[in-house]
């Protein structure tokens, strides 16, 4: 039977959300390897956001992440296309060609429709991803607490611990939700902007 120990109260007060994750991750690996003893202790270093994102993912989570990533890339690309069309429209205003201006207006309407759709997918799926994964981390942490011996509860305030779990998992939710989506969107905007520059005027980009 596994002998699992949680962090003491004074050490738990200094443990960050990334350290909490690493403690859980060590316990899960030990259970899989059927180790006779498991000691849950924080590792004093940062945790990769990719480990947080995929450590507890199932197939449904992977589908949600896939759709969210596509929506983020599309939203970043859409922003760069808008900037490109805006520059062309400014040049067209000098010609006072109504047909070209009309076509530009139609292009803006199309971009606006695409932005509404991918923007909705972007916010919805990244928000859902953060909520689902945060709930899993809370459940894993609660399982560790529930397995502790009675002596551990005598030296630890359960109400303080539950409040700390809530605050720490909110940080994880923010990192795995819209903040992650914004990072992916920025990558998509950079790649699409560079591609547009290379295709329209390769001399400027060298």
Nutshell version of this structure?
The chain contains eight helices and two strands.
Account of the protein in words:
It is a single chain. The chain is an all-alpha fold. It is 77% helix and 3% strand. The protein has eight helices and two strands. The protein has helices at residues 9-12, 17-32, 49-54, 59-95, 98-146, 150-154, 158-176, 178-200; strands at residues 3-5, 37-39. The protein has a two-stranded parallel sheet with strand order 1-2. Helix 4 (59-95) runs antiparallel to helix 5 (98-146). It is elongated, with a radius of gyration of 24 Å. The N and C termini lie far apart (65 Å).
Strand order of the largest sheet: 1-2
> What form results from the Cα inertia axes?
elongated
Uncertain runs are 1-44
Radius of gyration: 24 Å
The whole-number mean of residue pLDDT values reads 75
Report the structural category. Answer: mainly alpha
Question: How is the main sheet built?
Answer: 2 strands, parallel
Topology:
Blueprint: E1 3-5, H1 9-12, H2 17-32, E2 37-39, H3 49-54, H4 59-95, H5 98-146, H6 150-154, H7 158-176, H8 178-200
Helix pairs in contact: 4-5, 4-8, 5-7
